Structure formats: structure tokens, C-alpha cells
Amino acid sequence: EVQLVESGGGLVQPGGSLRLSCAASGFTFRTYWMHWVRQAPGKGLVWVSHINNDGSSTNYADSVKGRFTISRDNAKNTLYLQMNSLRAEDTAVYYCARASEAAFHIWGQGTLVTVSS
Amino acid sequence: QSVLTQPPSASGTPGQRVTISCSGGSSNIGGHSVNWYQQLLGTAPKLLIYIDNQRPSGVPDRFSGSKSGTSASLAISGLQSEDEADYYCAAWDDSLNVWVFGGGTKVTVL
Questions:
Q1: Phi and psi torsions of A43, nearest 5°
Q2: Per residue in A29-65, pLDDT tens?
Q3: Which of B99, B100, B105 to mutate to test the interface with A (most CBs of A within 10 A)?
Q4: Which of B39, B97, B103 shows the shortest C-beta gap to A59?
């Protein structure tokens, strides 16, 4: 079964750091571009970042540029999102998604990040 | 304020046809394919339509997508109670160099 499972969310103070993980299974992870998309409580979907299949190219939304870093370990079939200098407005459910044919075909269940003192 | 504009809500009775619009510009919908996602309450989004009008396997043919110029639409025919959800359009924006989503449309089955 094709599956993405996020982990690493939790409560963190403003200015703190957190690393999210997304474990992939059931498909050849190294051949797909991967994305992070977030959703603040009661709000819509917002794209955060993407990484190409071999990790050599990344892109970020302006709101997280310079604070978040996307990476992947193809040997471990895992996607990461390192989040530093966290702000209250980063509070959201973070989803990882597998991309192909210009769409996000597979989504994880999401992990909640709460930034609060 | 989302780059792609959707109506906040839409509704219909069982069996009716409901259409959701998504308006953008030349840098997103006008130059790139549009996708639609369905998000049931408390769950992760699910791909409904990709490349403007293609359905992934398992998506009922009651769902259809179309695009004209800088606007796209999602139609749900034969509305069913299980279609009650939030629906989002999305496209790549080559001016902003990011993926953009619509604000979402909540579909209610009366």
C-alpha cells in the first residue's frame, strides 16, 4: 500500500525549532518530487516547500524562506522539514505529499505543530 | 487573500448538480494545469482532478473538471451526502514561483 506517515509535530515555544519527518512506503520514493503543505486551524491549504527526487533542488514559500529547510534521505525513504525560528503563525497541520503529473497524488495524514508560549 | 479565487460555499440537494469556480491569472491557471482536492472533515486532502480534467482511479465520474482561459470549474453531478466537504483548486504559479491554492469552497448537501 502506498503510504506517507508524518511525525515530529508538537508544542514548541516561539523562536524554537522542530523537525518533521515523513516516512514513505509502498512506492519507489527516490523517483518522486515531494512537497510539504500546511493548514492553519480552520483555514485553507498553503504550499510550503518542495524538493526534487534527488534532493538537489528545493523551493520555499516566502513566508518560510530562510527559516525552514526541506531535505530527504532516499536510502531511508524519508522526507524532512527542519523548522527554525518558529512563529505563532506557523501553527498548522503539516502534510507531506507525493507529486507526479503536476499534482499532489498522495497525502499523509498530517502532523500538528503548535507554536505557543 | 488567496491567489486563486473560489466561492466560500456552495450547496445543493441530493441528485443535483453543483459547480465550483476557481479564478486565477495568466501566471497560474492560464499557463498551467489545474488540480482539485477534496477534504472531508478532519481528514487529509484527496486528489480529485488533475491536469484540468483527469480523474485518478477510484474517483467517481460524477466529478468532472474543466478549464477556460484563466478560470477553472469543478462540477459534481448527482450530488450525494458523502460529497459534503471542502474543495480546493490549485495550480503552479510561474510568476510567484510557488504552488497556489484557492481559499476553498465548502459544499453542503441540503
A1: -115, -175
A2: 999 999 999 999 999 999 999 999 999 999 999 999 9
A3: B99
A4: B97
